[in-house]
Design brief:
Hypothetical protein af1432, seven-stranded antiparallel sheet, about 55% helix, 15 helices, Beta-Lactamase, 2 domains
Amino acid sequence: MADRIKENIESMNKRMEAISVMNKIDKAVLSSISRYDLIDSVTFIVSDLFKDCMVALAMADTDKNRYIILSHYIKGIKGSKELNLTFEHLGHENLEKNKIFFIIDENTDKEYLNFLNSIIHQNNLYLVNLPIFLDEVYMGSLIVGTDADRPFTDFEMETLKALADQTGVAMKSVKYFEEKENLFLGILTALSKTIDAKSRWTSGHSERVAAYSVKLAQMMEMKDEFLNNLKISANLHDIGKIGVPESILDKPGKLNPDEFDVMKGHPQSGASIVEEIPGSGKFLNGIIFQHESWDGSGYPIGLDGRSIPLMGRLIAVADVYDALISDRPYRNGMSTDEALAILISEKGRKLDPGIVDLMIEIIKSEKK
């Protein structure tokens, strides 16, 4: 009798712990401002319940035909790298298999188990795949693995299935948030393009700066979340110029001190416009700090070196290069070689030396 009571208490405690985890996921939905945030939160919460396991969320990116493991934890320790796996590498048969629930071990599918272990550099003896659907569309899989020589218990499987279902519901909530955010961003991006387009000198400038900024960040192997936020930030980096008179923007000569003071206000004006979007903090840095200088002589704050947020340093290099090769009211666009010479002269003064070196690589590759 005592043993049975003990077992019942242990079972009850486990169920209470599982309910607690589900409540944490509900709270994560309320506090998450993007799919990336939610994925990491959910992965951490599940890993905290299954402390001796590997837990990963593999999201299916159908646009790029790949899986992205944006977040994974191994026995409570966060994996340091974002993992990517092409659909082609995975194979059509396995891709279809991942859309259903299954457990594999050395007896059921040793080849696929070894293949997955080689990707994540683990030696799991059991792996469970729990598909996540959003409005009946397959979004990816919650994957849990253990190197313990015992199968998952019925209770563990019951809990994991419930967590996978709840993750799908959570993803749906965040999707609606992202759609609202994207609506705001679409309006602001259109406004930013309007600012570029109202002057023949700046037409297409923000889009080109965004493209170069993302290329630079990719060379630094930044994660997809950062690349996405950087692209938004770079596209909106000049939105504050909506408050700058055209007489200043299109002035054919050098700006006088008063005019330059007006121009210097555009990063903070842009930030004031964009910060009305919930969750905008993740891409504000590029807008605010694009004109800070490596040597501390920039504005609006006068930060220097690596104290300048990376987004600001990346956009600064891309912005300077595009401005140099483009026609302006006070001069014609420079040649690539002339622009390169100026970029090099600004290394360690206005611009981050390492990022300039990467920009030089991009420019030289474009010339080939």
